[in-house]
Amino acid sequence: MWHLHRLGVLHLGVTVAPADGRQPPLLLRQTWNFDGSLELDGEAINWRPIGSGGQAWCFERTRDRARYFDFAAAGDLQLDTDVTICPAGLLLPDPSPLLLLGAFLVRLAVDDHVVIAGA
After folding, report:
1. Residue spans of beta strands (DSSP E) within 1-119
2. Residue 39: which of 52, 53, 49, 29 has the closest Cα?
3. pTM summary value
4. For residues 101 and 99, what is the distance between their CA atoms, to the nearest angstrom?
5. Percentage of the chain with pLDDT > 90?
6. Euclidean distance between the first and final Cα of the chain, in Å?
């Protein structure tokens, strides 16, 4: 089991932590554009949009921009998330924190877009 928690209004972020405490919590610090950064096993990682449609994002290594995973809102009502595992993602010893966090971030972005569009 994992815990995911959205933080703040002025300082956006999301934390992800395994419920059993086997890893320290990760904190993704976000900007108002919903991109962000975190550190995993000493490696700086970015969360950023890809493409121009505002429906796809990726996690990538900061130092060389190698992508780990691509995520995209999918389905008629954007209730699904498509995940593409990139070559760098295959080399991670435990990809679950980034996979869970990415899916959660896509859900937040889609939900936020619905709220903003309805306002």
Report:
1. 2-7, 13-18, 26-30, 36-40, 43-49, 56-61, 67-74, 80-85
2. 29
3. 0.78
4. 6
5. 35
6. 35
Give, in order, the Cα–Cα distances in Å from 83 to each of 40, 56, 98, 115.
Answer: 19, 10, 11, 24
Q: Measured between alpha carbons, how far is 71 from 57 in angstroms, rounded to an integer?
A: 5
pLDDT digits (tens, 9 = 90+) for 45-94: 999 999 877 789 999 999 999 999 999 988 766 678 999 999 999 999 98
Residue 113: what are its φ and ψ, rounded to 5°? Answer: -65, -40
Decide if 110 contacts 100 (C-beta within 8 A).
no
d(CA 3, CA 107): 15
- CA dihedral (11, 46, 93, 43) positive or negative: negative
Q: What is the C-alpha to C-alpha distance for residues 89 and 84, in angstroms, rounded to an integer? A: 9
Q: Is 98 helix (H, G, I), strand (E, B) or coil?
A: helix
Give, for 106, the enclosing helix (H) or strand (E): helix 96-118
Q: How many residues does the chain have?
A: 119
